[in-house]
Amino acid sequence: xxxxxxxxxxxxxxxxxxxxxxxxxxxxxxxxxxxxxxxxxxxxxxxxxxxxxxxxxxxxxxxxxxxxxxxxxxxxxxxxxxxxxxxxxxxxxxxxxxxxxxxxxxxxxxxxxxxxxxxxxxxxxxxxxxxxxxxxxxxxxxxxxxxxxxxxxxxxxxxxxxxxxxxxxxxxxxxxxxxxxxxxxxxxxxxxxxxxxxxxxxxxxxxxxxxxxxxxxxxxxxxxxxxxxxxxxxxxxxxxxxxxxxxxxxxxxxxxxxxxxxxxxxxxxxxxxxxxxxxxxxxxxxxxxxxxxxxx
Length: 296
Prior knowledge:
The chain has 296 residues and is mainly alpha-helical. The protein has helices at 2-25, 28-132, 137-151, 160-166, 192-199, 206-218, 238-295. Keywords: Coiled coil.
């Protein structure tokens, strides 16, 4: 009984509470608050709907951006392919130009080296030929000509010993000596006074004429024969001169051979340096297209 009484009291209390709440709801102020709540809820729903719509629009924009990025990637891929093809074509062009230039330079160097070698061989041959000429040959011939001219001796009046001495060296071709014409018969040297007298013959005095007659009578017919010395003291013995010239000629040959060896060594070193420099230039020019492609 006590339990049922407590239950009835609780139910009655709840009903009273409900009635109190209903009374509050029927209150105008409460109704006003409820209407305000409903309006705010509707606004929130509208804002939520707009947010959902904006979110959907944002997704569409993201999709469009992804599509544009894909197109840009395709365009960049085409650009890279075009740049790569251009660089390959440029490298091939520069390689061809470099090959042509290098071939031209090698041809020019080969021709120049051939010309230099031919000229050098010709110079060396000329130097060796000049070195084989007996020493003091030109000086001896000049001295002979001067002696013959001063002594009045002609080429035809040389002694047999002198001719043998000039051609007595074995293996040497006899040199053609320049000939000096001998004085013709009756020729004599005049003094300066005689030449002036001949030019001013009409104005001379009797004393000078007499002197000229005396001079003419003293000379007989007026002709003078060239005088020749009776000794040949200026000529060296054949053996001594041959030994001296042979020794000097051998020294000249050795000097020329040393000079030729030095020239050949110098030319060889210069050719090696030129080849190394050409290879270095070729490597640098070969790297230029690759550097340009990297910069591009």
